[in-house]
What we know:
Elements: H1 3-23, H2 29-43, H3 48-66, H4 73-94, H5 109-112, E1 123-124, E2 127-128, H6 131-149, H7 157-163, H8 181-195, H9 200-216, H10 224-234, H11 256-261, H12 266-278, H13 284-302, H14 306-314, H15 320-335, H16 339-345, H17 356-369, H18 374-384, H19 388-403, H20 410-414, H21 423-432, H22 448-467
Antiparallel strand pairs: 1-2
Helix pairs in contact: 1-2, 3-4, 6-8, 6-19, 6-21, 8-9, 8-21, 9-10, 9-12, 12-13, 13-17, 13-19, 15-17, 17-18, 17-19, 18-19
Amino acid sequence: MSIADAVVLAGAMAATWWLWPRFGPVTGVIPLAIGHFFLFCNVFRIHRTKELAWAGLCLVNVVAWAGWDELWWPGILVVQTPLTIALIAWEHDRTLVPRCPGPTDQWPPSRLSRRTAVTEPTHTRGGDLHAASRFVGCLVGTAVGDSLLLIGEGLSRRRIARRFPGTLRHRFLLGHGLVSDDTEHHALVAQCLLAHPEIVDAFSRRFAWRLRWWFLCLPAGIGMATLKACLRLWLGFPRSRSGVASGGDGPAMRVAIIGARFAADNDQRRAYVDAATLITHLHPHALAGAHAVAETSAWIVRGDELPTLWAILKGCSDDSTWGERLAVLRRWHDSGDTVDDLATVLGCPQHVSGWSMHAVPVAIGAWLRHRSDSTAGMGAIFRCGGDTDTIGAIAGAFYGLDGGEAAFDPQWVSGIVDFPLSVNVLRRIGSEFAASDARPVRWAWPLLPVRSLVFLTTVLIHGLRRILP
């Protein structure tokens, strides 16, 4: 928002306040017109034809109420708001990129005609992978793992086996999937990274504000550490003091994109991971888990050999607990045992907790054991129970970095029906990392409170179902 925009909005509010006692409800036309003009021209960039169509329907709506000898603005807004949301959704979907690029594609074509793609020597087990495909896969993979396994969050192995037998598929919302805060935070970090890819302090400042506004959208299922940190941010605590002493896996699920972006820059990678972590979590275990995820992501992008990964992970932290967990992970990998066995030896025989020293080793282990088969890897994580959505989100990012969106069952991707943070928005964000003049992507974030209400209702329904045997 520019200074001119702020002046116009403030002037409209002042004029409405001054004129209402003199002219009555008709004065409400001022904030209605100015507010929607700002919304359509500055926030969502609605096409002129659609904007005029909305204006015509709004005029009919207002005249109809005036014909009843009363301009009742709550009623007018009840009629007009669904039209506004539908128009934004229509225009939003029309501008989205419909697919993930292949290795030889220029993507998106309309943008690369005037922008130069960033090329980088990236390698995977299957050969070169287009830079855009890798970043898109990272974000879409997070959404896939998050939404697909969200239905099992907090459940034990036994209950998951009893309630969800058969093929792994979306079950959260009538056979479709919704993402949780795991995907939302990863997208927020990606957007802030696009805005400030060189200055860590600017990135941290922007991320802090994004967390504040995200918190006001009343997200369901927010972790306790993140909840406390967001409250501290709104109470005026500086970013350096907003974090709490928690070793949870909240930061680990949002830093894979940082590892991929700075795969060749150790200093920047560590600095950005620190910034993205300490704003909510201060415990060394949380920091070790976040660095492990980022380092694994960077290792995938560089295409290094497996033996180097263990040395890299060991350097993530000097904490003795992390060293012990890493040793367990490596012995398990060499033994060829199942992911269930890994969870058991880590101390999680019934379900995997949200502690970083549990969740991150299981995510890395499941991906390594089933690196060429995301169906087997996600299924193994799901069967372990516990914090399935976060562990799935981390592993999903690894699969996406390794093989792009093609690493996943197409039905898993198409089954995600979330909005406004849709799969196509994630694709657009990921594609920006392959552009020479990368910048944050516009999306319909003001609709998040409405979406949060839908998500919360669904969560409560599942909660009531869990009360039953």
